[in-house]
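## Example record

The block below lists the input lines for one assembly entry, exactly as stored, with component labels intact.
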Amino acid sequence: MSALLELTNITKTYPGVIANENISLSVTKGEIVALLGENGAGKSTLVKAVFGLVRPDSGEIRIKGDLISAGDTAAAIEHGVGMVHQHFQLVPVMSVTENIILGDEPRKGIFIDKKKAREEVVALSKRYGLEVDPDAIVEDLPVGMQQRIEILKALRKDVDLLILDEPTAVLTPQEIEELLGVIKNLASAGVGVLFITHKLREVMAVADRVVVLRNGKTAGATTPKETNEEGLAQLMVGRNVVLQVDKSDAVKQGIVLSIRDLQANDDRKHTAVDGFSLDVHAGEIMGIAGVEGNGQRELVEAICGMRPRLMGSVLVDGLETPDMQPHKVHRMGISHIPEDREKHGLVASYSIEDNLVLNQFDQPPFANGWIRNSNALEQNANTLVEEFDIRTPSIKTTAGALSGGNKQKVVVARELSQNTKVVVAAQPTRGVDVGSIEFIHKQLVSARDHGAAVLLVSAELDEILSLSDRIAVMFGGKIVAILDGKDADRAKIGRMMAGLAS
Amino acid sequence: MRSRWLMFAITFIAILYFYMRDSLVTTSVIGTAITFGLPLAMAAMVGIMCERTGIVNIGIEGTLLVSSFVGFFTASASGNLILGLISAVAMGAISGLLLSLLAVTWKMDQIIAGTIINILATGLTSFFYKQGHTIPSTFPEVDIPGLSSIPFFGPVLFMHGPLTYAGIILIFVLWVALYKTPWGLRSRAVGEHPSSADTAGVSVIKLRYLNVAIAGAFGGLAGAYLTLELVGSWDRGFSAGKGFTALALMIFGRWNPIGALGAAIFFGTAQAVTNQLMITQVVTIPQQFTNMLPYVLTILILAISAGKVRAPAAEGQPYEKEQA
Ligand SMILES: Nc1ncnc2c1ncn2[C@@H]1O[C@H](COP(=O)(O)OP(=O)(O)OP(=O)(O)O)[C@@H](O)[C@H]1O
Ligand SMILES: [Mg+2]
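Predicted C-alpha cells for the full assembly:
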C-alpha cells in the first residue's frame, strides 16, 4: 500500500541552526506515528513543512502520492491534512465558533449561517468530549480551553492525515484519555496520525511506531512493543534520564509566604478563589493539587498582582504586597513562572538576552541609572543559556523564534536565577522534554534548598506528588486538605480533587 | 462607547430643537451635513476595508485626488459623466493595487507606501492639470418619488444625486458583508491574526490584494462624487485633506462602517452649522478660523477616542509564513 504521507530528505535551515537535516519519514493509512525529540529537535518545523507553513530548503513532500509544492497550505488542506498547532492558530478577538468555522463556513445564501455554525460546534464538542463555550471570545479563555478549540478545529474536517503538535501539554488527565481514544478511533477508521508529545506514557499507549529526532536529524525509530519509557527517554536525550525526582527532606524554616482569606473572580466575574488561606515556609515546596478550573490560575494571578484581590491579603515576610502591581510584587520577592508563557512570560519580538532580564532590566548590574549595561546583559544571558541548556543559535535571537520548550526554559531561567524569597511556579514543565523536566525539577528543589518558599501549581499529579513536601488539595476555590508529601496517597488525593472525600 | 452615544444624543436633541425653531434652515443644514459628510464616510470605508485586512492606508488622500482628477478630465474630454465615473473608479482601484504591490508583495513599510501614493498623486495631478476645462453638468439630483415629500427626512435623505445614494447603500452593504459573510469573517481574521487564516486555508496575500483594490475603487467613487456630483470642477489640491480626516473618522467609528458613517455625518453637521453661521453672519469669525474647523475637530475626535479603541492587531505588518 502506498504511503499517505511520504517525506524524503527534508532539510530546513534557519540562521545559525539546521532545524531539519535530511529527514525522511512516512505515515500510512490507519497508522499512528509518534514523533519524539528534545525541545528544539525540529519536530514542529518538520510538521509545519508538511502543512505548508514552513518552506523546506530541499526535499520532497508527497501526500497520497501527489507532490506538494513547498509552502502550499491550501494544497495540504485539499489533500486532507488537518493540523493541531503547538502555537495556537486562533484569532484572539473572535468567538470560539468563528474560529472553528473560519475557512469553511456553513452558509445560507451569501451569508454565514450563524445558527448552524453554533450547532455544529456544540455537536462537535459533545462528540469528542472536549467542552467549549461556543460564544466565548478566545482571548478571554485559559490555555487549556484554547487547546480544545484548536483540536476541535482540526477534527471538524474529515481529514485523512491528522497532525497533532503537542496537543496534550495543557489538557487535563481525563481530556487526555478522551483524546487518545479519539485518536485510536480515527486510526482504526483509516486516518493516518502524526503525533508529537513529550509525555512518553501517551506514546506507549497509542503509537504504532515511534520516530525520534535529535538535533534536526533522525536519531532512531522503534515501536512501543520493543521498548519502554526509559528506553524512549534515552533514545531522545542520548543519555540516561532519571524520571524520578530525588531530593532530601525539606529543612523547613519560618513562614515566608502567607495568604490570608484571599478571594478573586475569574474572567466571567464568578468567584474562583473563595477564602483561600495558606502559609508556605522557607525551604519547602508546597504543591497545589486540583482539577484544572478550580481556581488555581486565578489564585496564582491574584498572588502575583495580576488579578484583583477582592478580599484578603498576600504577605511576604509579614509585609503586605500591593494589589494589581505585578512589578512591585516581584520586587518584594515573589518570582513567577506563568502558565501562559506566550502571553505573560515573554516578549516574542525581544531577544533572549532581554527576555532574561524582563523584570530587572532597570536594576544594577543590568543598568546604571539610565544606561543599560550590555556587558552584564550578555554575561547574564550566556550564563543562563548555558546553565539552563536553552537551545538557541545566539542570545540575540528573538524569543519568538525558539522552539516551544526552549521558550519555557527562558522563563524558568529568568525566574529561578534571581534567588527570590518566593517562587510561584505554575505548570513549570509544560511542553518541555523529559531531560529538561528532570532539570527544571532539580532547579526547583535547589531553590527550595537555598531557602526559597516554593508554591507549585501543576495539572500533573505526578509532578505534584514527586516534588512537594506538603500538598494542598484545592477544590472549588478552597483548600480541602493539606497533606504531608510523604504519605500522600494518589487515590485519596484523586478523590479529594473531585470533591468527594476529605 | 459612552462618549459616542452621548455625542449622538446631543446631536439628535440639537437637531430637534433647531427644527422646532426654524424647520427650513435646519433641514437645509442637515441636508448639507450629509453632502459634506458622505465623501468623508466613503473615504473612511477605504481605510476600514484596508485596515480590517491588516493594511494601513494613509494614501486615501492620494486616491481621492488622482481619481477625482481622472474622473473630471475624462468627463470633460468626453462630455460623458458616466465615463468620468467609470474612469475615476478604475483609477481608484489602480491606486489600491499599487498600494498592494508596495505593501503586500514588496513588504514595504506601509506608512511609506501610503506616502508614496500621496506624493505621486499630488505630483502627477499638478503636472497634468490644465486650467479652463469644464464639464457640461454635474450628476443631477434625483428625488425619490414619495419618500422625498416626507417632511424633514425627505429633503435630508431622499433629494440627492445618484452617487450619494450609491455611497450610502454601499456603506451598509460593506457593513453587512464585513459582519455576516464568509468574506467578512476571513478578512477580519486576516487583519487580526493572519497565520490563523492561513492555516485555515485562506490566502492572506490574495485577500489583501482583493480588499485593498476594492477599497481603492471605493475611494474612486468618493473622488467621482466630489468632482462630478458635488463641485463640478477640479483644482490643484482638490481633496483638501479629506483622506486624512477620513482616517480619524475610521478610528472614531471603531473600524465599523456604520460607526464611521455616524462620525462623518456628525462632522458634516459641524461644518454645515459653521457655514450657516457664517452666511447669516450671526457670528463673525475670520475665515481662517472656520477653515481650521475640520482639522481642529479631527484632533478633538482623535483625542476623545484615543486609548479606548483597538485597531486590528496585524495592522501594518507584512505577512511572512515562517513567523507562524
Ligand atoms: N521562525 C524561526 N526562526 C528561527 N529559528 C527557528 C524558527 N523556528 C524554529 N527555529 C529553530 O529551529 C529549531 C527547531 O525548532 P522546532 O520548533 O522545530 O523544535 P521542536 O522539536 O518542535 O521543539 P519543542 O519540543 O520545544 O516544541 C530550534 O532550534 C529553533 O530555535
Ligand atoms: Mg515544537
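Residues 2-128+160-305 of chain B form a domain with the ABC transporter involved in vitamin B12 uptake, BtuC fold (CATH 1.10.3470.10). Chain B has a mean pLDDT of 88.
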